[in-house]
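Problem 3 from the worked examples.
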Amino acid sequence: MAPLAAQVATAKLPPTLLAQPLRRLRSRLARWFWVDGLTRASWTAIGIACFDVGLDRWLKLDRSQRAIMLLLAIGVLGFVVWRHLVRPLLVRLSDDALCLEVELRQRELGQKLISALQLARDDNWQARGISPQLAEAVIQSGLDAAAGANWSGVLDQRRERRNAGLLAAAVGLVALVVGLSLISPLPGIWWRRNIQLSNEKWPQSSYLVFDGLREGRLRVPRGESFTVRVSVDPASRVTPDRVQLEFRPARGRGAVTMNSVSPGTFEHQLQRVIESFEIRAAGGDAETDWTAVEMVEPPTLGQLGLEVQPPAYTKLPSAVLPAGAGPHAILEGSRCRLAAVANKPLAAARLVHERGEWAARIGDDNRVEWELAEQQVHAGRYSIYLEDREGIRPQQPLTFVLQVQPDRAPKVEAKLMGVGGTELPNTRDTWEVRVRDDFAVQSARILWQARADEEASTLEPAAVALPAFEPFKGRTEAAFQDSFDLTPLNLGPGRTLTFVIEAEDNDERDGPNRGRSVEFLLRIVTPDELRDDWLRREKEQRQELEQVLRTQEELLTDTQALAAAAQVTENDRTAISGLSRRQKQAAQQVAAIAQRLDTIAAEVINNRLAADPDRLADRLRRELVAPLTAVAEQTAAEALQSLDEARRTVDDDAQRQRALQASTNAERKTAEELKNILERMLKSEGFQEAVQLLYQIQKAQQDVFDRTQREKQQRIEAILRGSGKKE
């Protein structure tokens, strides 16, 4: 048949007796090609389908792979149909070719058919030099041969029967598969997966699904870590022990084993995701389709501000704080308003604290707001959790920290002026008070308690208002002096008196808050005890002044030695610096002694012990305090200044010598004045001792007089009682 297929019919129609067998042969030939082509195509399709079923069940192809397989199958099947059906049917075999093929298959026909066919096409035989009788004889011979020829012999009938059987078997197999689809889902699944390209799964014991899919995709905040979670479908018969996560494109990432967080749930965290990719999970006999992971911008807040409104009693205006900074210290009882603008439409915004959670008001312009009443404002960390309309949540919330501070109590500083640790019952104490508060001071008073030494407990403190505070009421700071007279208390010697200054602020919410000064402890004594105490303290100051004088004389000697040196050594440089420090300390000691003596003078006035206390105090201040102060502030200061000048100009011999000489003169003058003051202190001590002795003599005389009077009274009473008995 191959030589015939290459020829094209160009002849006229043969005679009727030859045309009919040729037409029947063409019909049989077309049927043969149909059976052969359909057989090849059907079994090719069956083979492709079987191969596709096995490949898809084994590899679980994704949609794109199955689409490629479908295109390849269509291509192969189309090639087979074209090669074995369409192209043979399109070929038109000539009558000559058919006749030659019949004569080739039946040698006994010789060339009768082809000769008759060719002579019958053209009856102008004479022009061609052919005898008409001979031509007619040849044609008749061909017609006779055609009538007895086996025209079907040119076809491979065995192959035709075999192809027909194979075609019937293919049709039966397809019918069987169609019938099986009524009782088994497998054929339908294959059809829908590989022809309709659906994502329907093959029957399996386990099914895996990605959590959080939206429209078949995972949407991940760009630049943040993201946890991929895979769950085992409840319809699964078997729960896999291990699930692997695959990536496409890999970009250096191999398959990873996911962590099992609970039975049927697996997780894996992706760090700082910045580009899109695809993932697939596989475990047991389950395998998901490739799932796209898309990057989206996470919701954030801009123009974030925290407005704090302090309590009304503070009279403070509201303040706007940057919410991203902190921690922010705010006053207890404040109200807060948090406002911001989101970069995209939000579905929800929550403000979370360990003690509560509050949803935001979200406006159409992406503005979010929270209003926190004073009961909702707590110390600690606040976190803002956002979620956009696609369900995207930033992994890390926005945070800020509040430090809620209570209204501090007023700070009270008090100083008891002119009173030592002991005083008389009729003393008038003078207080120097300084009170400061963050907002306003409302009151100030003295709290006092008195008890005897043998008492184990004390009464509740008594309160006495300080009139001098009134002009400062409502201010944030008050500095004033006030007095407290002990005379109305009628305290006897031997009692202990404690004082504390207390102030209150204007806290109307939880207050008022009370602040107190340090506690002052005083002991009520007799005049003799007070005089002894003054004398003792004055002796202590005199002894300390004697030590300062010795130090000053040593400084003078050392300074004179340095002044006598023509040149200074390195040791001399160090010595000059040491002299300067020692002179400064000496001046400070003198000033401290003057201050302590002045305190004694003030106590003399306050305790009103002497008949003329102001005169006694004036003598102390005039003869001792004033000279000591002058030494500390003038002569000792001049010596210190000259030593500092010598230290600075140590390399200049002339200037150093002048400075050391000036220091020597000042130190000598300081020592002389200290000696004079010591002499006056000794005289004062003698005077005080004499006065004290006189008081003791007077007291002894009074004691003798009192005893005499008591004995006299007792004798009189005894005489009177004796006379009565006689009667």
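Problem 4, a separate protein:
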Amino acid sequence: MNMGREKRHRRLPAENFFGFLRLRLRLIFGFSALFAALLLLHYPLLRLPYYWDEAGYYIPAALDFLRSARLVPSDTLHTGHTPLVVIYLALAWRVFGFSPRVTRVAMTLVAAVTLAAVYALGRRLGSRETACWSVLLLALSPLFFAQSVLVHLDLAAGLFTLLALWALLGGTPWKFALAAVCAMLSKETAVVLLPVGWLFCWWRYRRAAASAVRAWWIAFVAPLAVLAAWAVFYHHATGYWTGNSEYLRYNLYATLTPVRVLLTLLRRLYQTFIGGFNWLLAAGALAGIGWARGNGMGSSQTKAHSRAHESQPNGCHPERREGSLQLSFFLLGGGLTAAYLLMLSLVGGAILPRYLLPVYPPLLLMAVLLIWRLPRPAARSLLALAGGCFVWAWFLNPPYPFPLEDNLAYADFVRLHQQAAQFLEARQANPRILTAWPATDELARPFLGYVRRPLHVVGVEGFGRQDFRGVAAPSFDCLYLYSRRWEPARNWLRSFPLLEDLQERYFDYQPQMPAEELADRYHLRLLASFARRGQWVRIYAPSMKPDTTQEGK
């Protein structure tokens, strides 16, 4: 008996080693398959030139860091954004070379890690099937799918925000501190993690040992200290604590009016819970709550699919509380969503849905967990329907203006501008091209991927009537006109004059000057026209010597 027991003990280390190895190999294989699937889905987008804010700030800033290790770029506007994503891209280019493909694969890697984190957290909170549904729906959601290859800060901020929530649930202060630091260095708006996390820890560990409380205090002070150090460094380099004078006016001083704050909050609620077929998940989550209550299940079903015990911090024994790990996650996710909605209603000139991307992974995971309380056939049918509608939304544009980066409309924009740039570059002459940003940068900066040599560009602020007031016909040889925003034929704003008026008064909405009116005013003839799924580019040239008495009117 003893000899047999000793043999089993002698085999145990080897068994543990091979079990550990098998687990690691499964994890590596699973993540590699996930990353490969994302790359396959995004393959047609990997070579696209850079789009809008990518071209205007993030790519020039990363190139600045690659060439001269400057954390505050000199080749583009100062916006005050923290530099982690810029550093990450510069390192990727240093290893693999500078190209749009390398850039987009690098961002897809961030998306894949985010999905892997959603799966791991979903397994801890529920079953394997709920974790898989959460990953699938997040990957297919139009906003996440579009942003998975674009160089913006919000995707990385969302990854580290999710990891910070996981650390809070697990009761590990140092992991939370590390994740929170990375989240804030990805984008400074992740600072909202701190008050939400502090309130959660106060509720959960208010009777904990003094050493644990001290560890959590350090965990919350460390990210704040890093963000403060960045602000001091940025102020030393630019004279501003964040951004620049125009940036502050647009994103702060011009936003703090009660009516605008209320309208922005309404728009943010729409983007979060209704737009892009999100209403399917919101309705399903409410139905799941109602079904559980109506059938008297309460939290018992939730506990059956979750680990009710909670990890405790080192040396800490928090009081036992009612509720499951899911309840803690719902409190954290709900609090973070509310904090983001409030913050983004108070600040931010552009009401872009991507700014809410840090709360998308926890929100979607919460929705799936709640929908799973429905009878299994109904839950699976609803989740499958949502997934199908998400894929449809990749190509479905709403009947009102929206940011093209919310779905694959941005790819249509980029491909149109590629065609137009190639047409202009092929012309023998080097005409002065009148256009508005971002086309000005696309034509003048070859590293953005549209042209091989810089063209001669004359810039205007936009294509509204006031933007052409000081423009005379002799100042340009060619007009590059394009749809700067989504303007469908049946625009809901035109059907409801009050909505259009509110957009113009509080959100700088301005219809473009009709192309026919511009052609008549400057005596232009159409050289080329390109169109793609409701977007267009038109290139004009003078057809005759203009009447100077009409110029500039």
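Solution to problem 4. The CA atoms of residues 530 and 536 lie 5 Å apart. Residues 2-41 form the longest helix (40 residues).
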